[in-house]
Amino acid sequence: MFKTGVQMMILVLLAGLVLMRESRQEPLAGWDDRWVDFLATTSRMMESEAAVTLVGIDDGSLREHPWPWSPLDFSLFFQAAIPTNPAVLAVDEVLDWDRFALPEAQMKKLPQYEKILMDQIHRAPRMLLGAHLGFPDDPQVAPPWQEVPLLRNVKGDLRELPEYPIVERQPSEDYRLAATIGFTNLPPTQERYNSVPLIFRQNGQVVPSFPLQAMIMWSRLTPDEVSVVLGSHIDLSHKRRIPIDARGRMRVDFAAPRGHVSFDDLLFASEQAAAGKPPVVDLSKLKGRIVLLARIDQKSKTVPLAAGRNGSPGELFAAAIATMQNRSYIRRAPIWAECLVLAAIATLAFFVPRWSKWGTFGAACFTLIVYTLVAMAAFQQQLVWLPGVVAGGAMLCCVLFRCVASNQVPKPKKPVIL
Which terminus has fewer CB within 10 Å in the chain: N or C? Predict the structure, then answer.
């Protein structure tokens, strides 16, 4: 078996076609995600830092300010961040207090704390607060109408978008009147979050997610200036085009550079600046940025990221915003490029029966090294990733087929009759 180069070429070609189909769904899609993460971390272009800073509530912050936070804890963030003149202040937590979870001393002072927080929110230039979509307890009862930000310029099949009938959790009305809400829902069944949803359906209407709403506010646009083409892109008033799939998701570039400061460091730097001392954090770098307050402590890291680690929703949102601001949209190579890669490997397989088994193994290793360098160069220049599963799987098939194939016996030369 496998005695001729044509047989080997056809078998490798068939195996490659199967891999091309299966690499677009789990579990092979997860392998390609890790391949993309490898390219993103080893072949990055020199990019400027995106105009977003994540203010992380880490384990050290929670020792001083135990969770759940009261309005007073959140007001400390606004008090420290507002003087830096950010473009947008964002909090992905839902500012809806569970009064039964608060200590008794805080419950008594809750109205006073809420007034302090309300005053701080009124001082903020643009305020984005987290909200959460969900489902009613009784699906037979029509949900009440709720005022939410709507995107009206939408083209495409809306049935592919995830739909939620109601707004399950949102800030109190006083906060909503002084701010804008963005929805923080994440797909519940996704194995690895290499992408983030930018739009949802709420009671039949298209609404922006938390990261997209942050970009709309940072770009100084209204929802009516945003147009959506499902399966293609979101156009922010012809200033910025964001690629999305049919379900409204955008692939996240976790290597996009972005700012980060801990909550404690921000408070300390604010106190130093007020006292006329050099702050531990350069607060001038927050000017004109999206400043996002989110948890990053160990208990909050429940989201399996495509980068091979767990993270918090806030970290995912910050990476998504940085991707949109830097326009670092990672794209899969077109289908014709995958066909060219497979055709090149199938052509190589034509000569495999003529080589020794160790020679085939060495040639496969050399070919994969060269292919990796080419893939890194393509990613660095265009942020386009060449297939990893198809190339690696096809080369593995060449080696395995050669290991089970018998050595090709050269045909004896016919004697020359003089």
Answer: C
- Which pair of structure tokens corresponds to residue 221? 């646009």
Give Dmax over CA atoms of the chain in angstroms. Answer: 116
C-alpha to C-alpha distances, 216 to 49, 127, 133, nearest whole angstrom: 19, 12, 20
Instruction: List CB contacts of 268: < 8 A, sequence separation 6 or more.
Output: 279, 280, 281
For the chain, the three-class secondary structure string (H helix, E strand, C coil) is CCCCHHHHHHHHHHHHHHHHHHCCCCCHHHHHHHHHHHHHHHCCCCCCCCCEEEEEECHHHHHHCCCCCCHHHHHHHHHHHHHHCCCEEEECCCCCCCCCCCCHHHHHCHHHHHHHHHHHHHHCCCEEEEEEEECCCCCCCCCCCCCCCCCCEEECCHHHCCEECEEEECCCHHHHHHCEEEECCCCCCCCCECEEECEEEECCEEEEEHHHHHHHHHCCCCHHHEEEECCCEEEECCCEEEECCCCCEEECCCCCCCEEEEHHHHHHHHHHHHCCCCCCCCHHHHCCCEEEEEECCHHHCCEEECCCCEECHHHHHHHHHHHHHHCCCCEECCHHHHHHHHHHHHHHHCCHHHCCHHHHHHHHHHHHHHHHHHHHHHHHHHCEECCCHHHHHHHHHHHHHHHHCCCCCCCCCCCCCC
Which residue reads 């804890």 in tokens? Answer: 73
